[in-house]
Write a structure and sequence with these properties.
The complex is a heterodimer of chains A (about 375) and B (about 140). With about 375 residues, chain A is an alpha+beta fold. Chain A has helices at about 10-25, 35-40, 40-50, 55-65, 70-80, 155-160, 190-195, 200-210, 280-295, 310-315, 320-325, 335-364, and strands at about 55, 85-95, 100-105, 220-235, 240-260, 270-275. Chain A folds into 2 domains: about 10-80, no CATH class; about 95-120 and about 150-165 and about 180-320, no CATH class. Chain A is globular. Chain B has one domain. The chains are: A alpha+beta (about 375), B alpha+beta (about 140). At the A-B interface, strand 1, strand 2, strand 3, helix 7 and strand 4 of A face helix 1, strand 1, strand 2, strand 3 and helix 4 of B. Strand 2 (about 85-95) of chain A pairs parallel with strand 1 (about 30-45) of chain B.
Chain lengths: ~375, ~140
């Protein structure tokens, strides 16, 4: 017989109070403000927005504060908030070629039009703990060149002009939207990129790493990485044209990979693409590698590594879904467990009986 | 100047800056809200390989507002984020700019200087990025 049980209200209320206390920490210290998180933990904020699939730095910072810095919990909070908002518009595809560049590098050409622009990067730091950060010191303002940047064309367009890389042309097709229709495998590249864009960075990073170690090798080069501001435009009926509603920072990675080709098409480089809200360079690199791996079937390559298996990769990429299902194991499973216990006892009784029967036979 | 050109400058100007510039103009037209302000989301799209087919990158918060002046014209405003005041202010300025007696002043004394400020901010950011551009030099080895 199953008897419903209630209880725990007081314990839960007190647990939440204790959580609030731990989140606040030592009351002798100043409380962390959302503005401080937004300004001083930018990369954490950007990661939360990217994986929550909602660009709003203030709310992402609030989510991080509320989650005591737990990225996955913060992503969950922001994703949940997202469901309370109506969708008012769909943007025109952002034009990353017109980006206001803050960082832009290529690993395939040294001399590129516009130059290699390092921007605010952790590359070339020594990865030694900087004990100066323990003290509150003056931070010098960054250097400023005499001249503004020259125009920075997309590096892959240089290869494109020679026909050395597959073309990416717009056929005008309306992209699949996984937030409106759940993914139905196999999914097309638009749906894959949408799912990768909100995928957990750690997960994508590991899968990308696996392709480099030989599980779905695709010989990548970082053709170009660019980070900066792009304008977001929406079409409005009221004006009968596109309008700009603001700028957002994005990161883009264009990977160049080894050859495809066919009887009709001469051998050419293939592409992998990564795009993300905010400053998320590692994420976009991983995304580009996994995007390319997932194109194996389309490019006629054998599909025999984990990173090439779309349903496996995509169905497990979302940290909100993954943590939800793993975390549900904490919920009461008292009845399930009772039935397992019952079954186990029965099996053990049967096992003991057959053992006894066997030993009785030996005696005879 | 078209409405969408004004809208762009107004959306790219921080709200506080816009507010003080607008207040300085001393244009005070009674208006009422006809829609919103309301906050929702825009689905932001990207393109595969920057030039290929569109895909859905993720959503962003946005706010829209529409107002009407007592003597007629409707104004609309849209802006990134959740700032009701910013969206409503854009809508009000858009409505005022429909008035023949105000349009030139708004364009000359508000939009043009804000466009200049925007260009200056962008140029400064660009020069800061340019200071991190690598100058390669070649090491000659041996003789």
């Amino acid at each position: 017989m199953y008897v419903a049980v209630k209880g725990g209200e007081q314990a839960i209320a007190n647990a939440h109070q204790l959580l609030g206390d731990r989140r606040r920490g030592d009351r002798e210290l100043a409380e962390l403000s959302v503005e401080q998180i937004q300004e001083q933990l930018r990369l954490a904020v950007d990661r939360v927005m990217s994986e929550a699939s909602l660009f709003d730095p203030e709310l992402a910072a609030l989510a991080l504060k509320q989650a005591s810095g737990d990225t996955i919990e913060a992503v969950f909070l922001l994703r949940a908030y997202r469901t309370t908002l109506p969708r008012l518009a769909v943007s025109e595809p952002v034009d990353t070629s017109a980006m206001r560049i803050e960082r832009r590098i290529s690993a395939t050409y040294k001399d590129i039009p516009g130059g290699q622009i390092l921007g605010p990067t952790y590359d070339y730091t020594h990865r030694l703990l900087d004990f100066m950060q323990l003290a509150e010191g003056e931070i010098p303002t960054p250097a400023r060149a005499e001249q503004a940047l020259e125009s920075c064309p997309q590096i892959l367009e240089l290869l494109n002009a020679e026909g050395l890389i597959e073309r990416e042309a717009d056929d005008g097709s309306e992209p699949y939207d996984i937030t409106r229709d759940p993914p139905d495998y196999p999914v097309d590249r638009a749906a894959r990129l949408q799912m990768l864009a909100r995928g957990d960075e750690g997960y994508l990073l590991s899968l990308a790493y696996s392709t480099q170690r030989g599980y779905g090798r695709n010989h990548p080069f970082a053709g170009e990485i660019r980070i900066g501001q792009v304008e977001v435009e929406i079409f409005v009926e009221e004006f009968g044209e596109r309008i700009c509603i603001g700028e957002i920072p994005v990161s883009e990675c264009q990977m160049i990979n080894q050859f495809g080709g066919s009887r009709e098409v001469a051998p050419q480089f293939t592409r992998g693409y990564g795009l993300s809200f905010g400053h998320n360079e590692r994420k976009t690199m991983a995304m580009a590698l996994v995007d390319r791996a997932l194109r194996a079937e389309e490019l006629g390559e054998p599909v025999n590594s984990p990173a090439q298996q779309a349903e496996f990769v995509l169905a497990h990429a979302d940290s909100v879904e993954a943590s939800g299902f793993v975390s549900h194991l904490k919920l009461p499973h008292y009845v399930d467990f009772q039935s397992e216990l019952e079954l186990l006892r029965r099996l053990r009784r049967a096992h003991a009986a057959s053992q006894k029967a066997a030993s009785d036979e030996e005696v005879i | 100047m078209t409405r969408s050109q004004r809208q762009r400058i107004l959306a790219l100007t921080p709200r506080e800056r816009l507010k003080s510039r607008w207040t300085a103009l001393g244009i005070d037209r009674p208006h009422r809200r006809v829609r919103g302000p309301e906050t929702g989301m825009a689905m932001v799209r990207g393109r595969m390989g920057a030039t290929g087919n569109a895909f859905n990158l993720g959503e962003m918060t946005m706010t829209r507002a529409s107002v009407t002046l007592e003597d007629g014209p409707l104004g609309h405003g849209w802006v990134r984020g959740r700032d009701f005041h910013h969206a409503e202010l854009i809508a009000l300025i858009d409505a005022c700019a429909q008035q023949d007696d105000l349009r030139e002043r708004i364009d000359a004394e508000l939009i043009a200087p804000l466009a200049d400020e925007l260009a200056t901010r962008n140029a400064e950011a660009s020069r800061t990025a340019a200071a991190t551009r690598v100058d390669f030099f070649t090491m000659v080895r041996g003789e």
